[in-house]
Amino acid sequence: MATDKEKRSLTWAQITKSLCAGGVAGAVSRTAVAPLERLKILMQVQGNEKMYTGVWQGTSHMFRNDGIRGMFKGNGLNCIRIVPNQAIKFLTYEQLSRKISHHLIDNGGDGQLTPLLRLSAGAAAGVVGMSATYPLDMVRGRITVQEAGNPQYRGLWHATGCIIREEGLLALWRGWLPSVIGVVPYVGLNFGVYETLKDVIIKTWGLRDERDLSIAVRLGCGALAGTMGQTLAYPFDVVRRRLQVSGWSGAKNLHADHGQAVAYRGMMDCFVRTVREEGIQALFKGLAPNYVKVVPSIAIAFVTYEQVKEILGAEIRLSD
Length: 320
Fold this sequence. Notes:
Radius of gyration: 21 Å
Largest sheet: 2 strands, antiparallel
Number of helices: 11
CATH superfamily: Mitochondrial carrier domain
Strand content: under 5%
């Protein structure tokens, strides 16, 4: 019989393995689609003078102007952000799911989460993970869109210092509100649809548990979940990026108003002005490369997470 101390030690070991798996999943999935991620952001913040018009044209333009290294600009910072973000997000989802499952069992249920409960747990996990690392995302967004030939920021610490000194500490949280609103359907649907699809397939095919699912099936479930979540949340992602570069002179070539960098008063002002000046379609700028990106990105993240956990011997699984 294990003592309480041994049980706590085992629990922390499993949590540590889960955090590591989440971090690896985030780094691998984002690096795999880094050029498309940068293209999406560049398309989101540009105004009516379009430099990037599509996936192929935008990718070619980036390659000609910035080279291979330029196509991955900001990916190092993205990985620094996404490793703790994904680790916290996956762990939060697992812990919330376990708490809800135990509550259902204590009240006479079978402990199985409904699609709505999975979506709610996923949404909460997304808000926690995003909020914990938001300043890194804001700084990464600035570095990603700055001109290659005339960069204002030399790196993470230089950019952070400049932003705080010139715009104030709260500038690091610019765009947080639309991010919170957008992350609820995005991450909620990611987890909810992914877990529900796996559960349906397992029951339909008469399998024992999720370990009997092939990697191809898991990739398909992850891709569908990511596509649904991203479509609903995308306008909020566009507004978030625009608020992050609001009033910043380094973005004026991408988002200009009579030669001056556009400054928004807040989320609703950004929504209204974007639609009024550029049309409703502006809220979906960059959606094409994002679709190309999100399918492999979300799928790779889920599958990598589960595979790394199996390699590490972690007992906590998404479906537990």
